[in-house]
Structures are given as C-alpha cells and as structure tokens.
C-alpha cells in the first residue's frame, strides 16, 4: 500500500501539492471562524448536578459575573476622606460603562458588610464589580475594563474569577508566542546540523507549520460543537511541532539515503514511503491512541484536549505523506542544494553500531544499573499529591495572583464554602414543618468537627430559635424584614433550599474531605434529597477513578497495534514495559520539582500539589511519543533482521542507521518541549519539562542502551508469535514487504 502511494504521489506530484494547498486554505478559514475556548467540566459529578440545580432554580446564581478590585495605601486609612474619594474617582469610569451592572464598595453597603470589605489595619479595601454578561463573555473584555481603573494615590489590584480567567488567557498567549520563537531559534540550527543542507532543513519546518495551523483550525471547529479547553492551543502547538518535525525528519532522511545509494527520485520516494512512510503512519496511530485515552474523561476539559491532540497528529501524518512527499518528488536531487560546509559523515560503521555491539556483549552489566537508575528517578511518585490547580498556577508576579493574596487578608476570606442543596420532591421549603426540619438539619451540621458555621435562611441569626424561624419564614414575604427577604431569595427556589457549610480548611485538605464525607453520609431532612457541592474534591476523584481504565486501554490497544506492525508478541510487551520506565522517571521528576519545590526559584513558580490533569496529559503524551521512537527503531531493526536473520547484527545495523537520526529527532523534540517549559503558567511548564525529560530518557537510556540489551537477551524470541497469529499477521498483509 505504501509503495503504491509513493508511486502515485510521484506521478501526480503537482496535483497532490495542490490538494495540500487547498487543505491549508481550508485550515486558515476554519481557524479564523473557530469557536471560543473555555475550561469546563465536572458535570457528571454530584457537584455538577448540584450546580446545575442551583442555576436552574436560582437563576441569579448563573447570571452575570464579577471581579474584585483591591485598593490599598500605606499612608492613608479607609476612614480618611481622601482615601474614599480616591476609590470613588478610580471607579467612576466603570460606573459609566454599559457592561457594568453595579459596584459595591465599603462606602455604600451596610456596616456589617463594610467591615468585611476592609482589612483590620484599615489600609486596604476591596470593591466588587458586578457585570451583566456571563463569565466566558466578560473574560474577553476584562482587560478593557481594568484599563479604565487607575489611581494616583492608591495601589489597585484586580482579581476574582473573571480577572483570573483573563490573566490565564494573557499568560497562555504569551507562553505560546515565546515557545514559538524559542523553538525556531533552537530547531533551525539542529536541523542544519542533522541535514547539512538548507533545502532539507526547510522541509520539516514547513510540515510543522502546516500541522500546527491545521491543528489550531481543528480546535476552532471543535469549539463550535463542544467545550474546548483554553490550554488546547498550547498543547496542539507543542504536539504538532514535535511530531510533524520528527516525521518529516525520518522521511526526508530516508529519501536522501535512497538517493545517495543511486536510486532514481521515483524509486527513492517509493522506498521512503514503503519504510519510513509506513513507520510514520504506525507511529501516528500509537500517538493518537495515547491521546484518545483522554476520551475516558468525558465531562472534563481533558476529553477536548484528547480530541485536539489526535487531530493535530492525524494532520501531521497527512501532510508528511502528501505535502512533504510531493515536494520530495518535485525536488529530487535538488533536496541536497545549499549544502553547508560541515564535515560529512564517514562511510562505514560508526558510533551507534559500536555502542550496540558493546552493549550486547555484556547486556546484564548495562541493563541492571540503568533500570535501577530509572527506578530511583521514579521513586518520588510514592509521595505524589493531587489537587486542582488554582490561581497559584499563575506566576507570583501576576496582578490577579497578588490581588488574590491580598484578598485573603480581609475578614472572612480564606474560608471554604460547601453548598448543600436540599431538594423536595414536591412543594417548596417554606412550610412550618420543613423550616423546622431544616433548622434541625443545620444544627446537626454545626456539630461536625471543623465546621465553623452554616450560612442559610435557618441560621443567619444566632439569637433566633427553631420556632422563631418557623414563624418568620412562613409569613408573607411582604411582612418579612428586608434582610430576610434578601436571604430567602438568594437561597431558595421552587423546590430547593441551599445551606452553605463554612470551614477554615482548604478545599482539598483531608479535613475538608472528611466534612464532605460526613455531609454526604447524613440523612437529608424528611421528604427530601440532598446534593453536596464540593467541586474540587469531586473533580479530582473523577479523574483518579478513570486513570486505571485509561492506562489499561492505552497499553492494550498499543500492544495490538505494535503486533500488527511487527508480527511479534514479545516486542510489543517489551515496548510497553520500556515506556512505563520512561514515564515513571518523568513522573518522579515532576513530583521532585513541582510538588517538593526543588528549582522553584530558578523556574519561578510556587510548589504545590500536581493538578489532576498533569498526570493524565503526561501519561497519554509520553506513551504515544515514546512509541514514536519505538516504532521507527524497531521498523529499521526488523528490516535488517528480515535481510540477515541475525538478531545481534540486525540490532546493531538498525541502531546504526536510525540511532543518529533518533537522537537528532529527540533533540529537536526536547528543544520544542523545553521552550514550553519556559512558560509562566505552571500547567504548561510542568507538561513541557516532563515531556522533555521523558523524551530525553527514552531516546538515550532506553532506545540506545536498554533496547539493545533486552533484544540481545531475548535473541530469536524477540520475533516469536504462535503459528496461528503469525499466519493471521501474514494474511492481513501488514508486515513490510521485502525490497526488490
């Protein structure tokens, strides 16, 4: 099939190139008309159902959005008239903006609320700006509103959900731009060293650029039909550049190798498609399999990132087999034009052949210490902590993060609120019996260890007793005090009532988790059901519960694909085990750096538990990308084994022919990933550094040392498969045909 494709592309090279141009034009149009990216998830959890119920029956809870502005001065206090005037002057432009619904300051709210909006030292206040639009819309224009607020006398910091979301967008965009520039600065010299000609160097860059544009277009189209994470653009660029350049590298190198052996351009392209083109296709399938494991996390942004990653890998393979192949057919011998004055590689056997032979002479002497080293590198995994990332993923100097830190110094801040939604099958909660039951329910919750209090319509005034609440809440709304009316409107719906449980413990601390477990274990008031909104805990549990299934799926399907590639039952098992070693080492390094805080000053981040998405993303990406090199190396070794029948010689020749290229490809991919490791957002930084380390380990310790040692120990068993499966493999004709 691949030989036929090579012949087809050569004969219709201009038409194939034209199809590639049409694909690029379509990608640009799709990119310019893509949907809006946003992070979402958790709808399938108890918290998600509780939030949906509150948004349905408490319409104001889902309408509009807000952000906070913190005003401070070392010289003036909040009681000084000049301080008040400075705040009101700074806020005046927002009051005149049609997008602003209202502004609450300590100077125009009840005294109790004003105290909560002023620090105890009196030098800092905050104002809440309520907007008419929902969060995704408001996030787009927050920077315009923030630019209107400035003061000559006060320090002003913006924070809150809308502000933090906008800051994430800003830093993700700058991370992407920086990574693109740094990648090019590093990749171009590396490609020149690998190919030593300008024309050959430009080809992988062209494929990489087309793949990224196509991937971003795919993300935009996907965003019109489902929620797609704001992180997707960075992940797509990271994956697209890495795999597209890698795939191009192998195909161009094989084409030049065939040309140097005296073949015509047509035969060289056919041979390149039959070998490297086939390996690239299987490699793309294995990478896509790794990414498709994210589809097990439906209801979270991870599933959209899996789709996005699979799209860009498919596009990279497609452009490598069409755009790149047609250009090679057109260029022919001109692919070696503009050669640089670099020393040429000497003919004959070189470093990689000698290394493979030396390793295979004493395989256990090499294998045992390297495996032990990887196990030691993986050992920090036993201390791993998983928790949802928050504003702490922004760099310490980000305005919204500094504002958030200052906001925690205000009275009542730094607390965790756990909404409990009580739902009645019929009728509302405002009857004498149900108000009494809810009062008892709230009093019972207050007895739980770690609970500071319960904010609800049956517990807002400690001086009131059960009978007082029953009398107060069952009378006509017009007869109730204004404060009571506000509380009732904010906490009750046609069939629900919301009680907010307050604790000083962090959202994902063991103490908070114990409170949530107690709340969910207790019986609801008679005639009702209840839901507890503990989103961070539920989302982390949602991810962790599905990880074993995703891991099992990736391993099994990858094993099957590698069997189809090699016809062996042993080589796929070896590949899976090798990948586990690479992934384990990179996971251990992530824990050591980002959780335990080593290098935090150098890399400019605050140590914290790993976000639950990081292990998932890293596993799926590393497993797929590691298989990339496994497929390319094993394909070359199998090609030599078919020719000679000698495993030792096949491993040495295969490593000699592909080792230098794998190292160069890995160096380029590591450079791309390290460029993303310079990101300001901790999630992107950790994934970039984790991938860079995993690929470096995989291309050096694993492929260059462990693989030859293991294959030498296994000998002919490397290629073993039961006769029935071997016949099946031959029948479906997925084995590579021998060259004529």
Task: Name its key features.
740 residues; alpha+beta; Multidrug efflux transporter AcrB transmembrane fold; Alpha-Beta Plaits; 4-stranded antiparallel beta sheet; 26 helices; 64% helix
Task: Explain what you see.
The chain is α+β, with helices and mostly antiparallel strands and 740 residues long. It folds into four domains: 1-33 and 196-344, Multidrug efflux transporter AcrB transmembrane fold (Up-down Bundle), CATH 1.20.1640; 63-165, Alpha-Beta Plaits; 352-388 and 543-740, Multidrug efflux transporter AcrB transmembrane fold, CATH 1.20.1640; 408-506, no CATH class. Helices cover 64% and strands 7% of the residues. The protein has 26 helices and eight strands. The chain has helices spanning 2-11, 13-32, 46-57, 59-62, 81-95, 111-116, 135-147, 161-195, 198-223, 232-260, 265-292, 301-331, 351-361, 363-378, 399-407, 432-446, 466-473, 482-491, 510-521, 535-566, 570-595, 600-603, 613-644, 647-677, 682-714, 723-731; strands at residues 65-72, 100-104, 124-131, 155-159, 416-424, 451-455, 496-503, 528-532. The strands form two sheets. A four-stranded antiparallel β-sheet has the order 2-3-1-4. It has a four-stranded antiparallel β-sheet with strand order 6-7-5-8, with helices on both faces. The longest helix has 35 residues, at 161-195. The model has no long low-confidence stretch (mean pLDDT 86).
């Amino acid at each position: 099939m691949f030989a036929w494709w090579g012949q087809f592309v050569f004969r219709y090279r201009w038409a194939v190139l034209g199809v590639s141009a049409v694909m690029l034009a379509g990608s640009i149009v799709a990119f310019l008309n893509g949907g809006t990216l946003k992070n979402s998830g958790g709808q399938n959890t108890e918290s998600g159902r509780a939030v949906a119920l509150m948004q349905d029956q408490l319409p104001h809870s889902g309408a509009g959005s807000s952000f906070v502005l913190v005003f401070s001065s070392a010289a003036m206090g909040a009681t000084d008239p000049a301080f008040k005037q400075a705040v009101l002057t700074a806020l005046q432009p927002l009051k005149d903006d049609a997008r602003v619904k209202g502004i609450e300051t300590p100077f125009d709210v009840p005294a109790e609320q004003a105290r909560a909006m002023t620090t105890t030292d009196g030098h800092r206040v905050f104002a809440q700006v309520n907007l008419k639009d929902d969060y995704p819309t408001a996030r787009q224009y927050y920077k315009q509103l923030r630019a209107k607020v400035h003061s000559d006398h006060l320090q002003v910091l913006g924070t809150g959900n809308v502000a933090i979301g906008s800051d994430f967008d800003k830093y993700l965009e700058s991370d992407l731009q920086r990574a693109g520039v740094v990648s090019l600065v590093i990749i171009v010299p590396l490609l020149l060293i690998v190919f030593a000609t300008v024309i050959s160097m430009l080809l992988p860059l062209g494929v990489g650029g087309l793949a990224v544009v196509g991937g971003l277009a795919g993300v935009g189209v996907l965003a019109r039909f489902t929620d797609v994470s704001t992180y997707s653009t960075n992940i797509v660029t990271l994956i697209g550049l890495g795999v597209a350049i890698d795939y191009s590298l192998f195909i161009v190198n094989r084409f030049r190798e065939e040309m140097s052996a005296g073949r015509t351009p047509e035969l060289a392209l056919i041979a390149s498609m039959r070998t490297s083109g086939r390996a690239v296709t299987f490699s793309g399938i294995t990478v896509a399999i790794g990414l498709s494991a994210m589809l097990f996390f439906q209801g979270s942004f991870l599933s959209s990132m899996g789709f996005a990653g699979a799209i860009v890998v498919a596009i990279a393979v497609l452009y490598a087999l069409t755009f790149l192949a047609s250009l090679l057919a057109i260029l022919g011998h001109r692919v070696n034009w503009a050669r640089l004055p670099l020393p040429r590689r000497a003919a004959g056997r070189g470093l990689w052949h000698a290394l493979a032979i030396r390793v295979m002479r004493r395989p256990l002497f090499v294998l045992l210490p390297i495996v032990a080293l990887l196990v030691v590198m993986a050992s920090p995994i036993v201390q791993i902590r998983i928790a949802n990332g928050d504003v702490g993923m922004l760099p310490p100097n980000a305005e919204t993060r500094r504002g958030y830190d200052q906001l925690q110094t205000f009275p009542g801040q730094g607390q965790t609120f756990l909404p409990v939604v009580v739902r009645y099958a019929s009728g509302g909660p405002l009857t004498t019996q149900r108000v009494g039951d809810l009062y008892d329910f709230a009093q019972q919750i207050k007895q739980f260890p770690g609970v500071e209090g319960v904010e609800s319509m049956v517990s807002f005034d400690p001086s009131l007793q059960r009978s007082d609440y029953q009398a107060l809440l069952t009378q006509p709304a017009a007869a109730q005090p204004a404060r009571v009316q506000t509380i009732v409107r904010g906490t009750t719906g046609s069939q629900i009532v919301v009680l907010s449980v307050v604790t000083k413990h962090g959202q994902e601390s063991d103490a908070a988790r114990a409170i949530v477990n107690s709340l969910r274990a207790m019986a609801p008031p008679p005639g009702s059901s209840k839901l507890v909104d503990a989103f961070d805990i539920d989302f982390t549990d949602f991810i962790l519960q599905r990880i074993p299934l995703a891991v099992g799926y990736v391993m099994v399907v990858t094993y099957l694909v590698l069997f189809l590639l090699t016809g062996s039952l042993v080589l796929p098992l070896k590949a899976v085990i090798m990948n586990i070693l690479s992934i384990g080492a990179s996971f251990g390094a992530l824990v050591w750096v980002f959780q335990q805080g080593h290098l935090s000053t150098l890399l400019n981040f605050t140590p914290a538990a790993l976000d639950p998405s990081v292990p998932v993303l890293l596993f799926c990406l590393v497993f797929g990308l590691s298989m990339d090199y496994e497929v390319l190396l094993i394909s070359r070794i199998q090609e030599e084994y078919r020719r000679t029948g000698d495993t030792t010689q096949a491993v040495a020749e295969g490593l000699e022919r592909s080792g230098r290229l794998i190292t160069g490809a890995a160096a380029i991919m590591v450079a791309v990933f390290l460029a993303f490791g310079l990101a300001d957002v901790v999630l992107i930084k950790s994934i970039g550094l984790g991938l860079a380390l995993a690929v470096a380990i995989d291309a050096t310790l694993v492929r260059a040392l462990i693989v030859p040692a293991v294959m030498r120990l296994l000998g002919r068993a490397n290629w073993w498969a039961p006769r029935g499966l071997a016949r099946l493999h031959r029948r479906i004709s997925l084995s590579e045909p021998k060259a004529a």
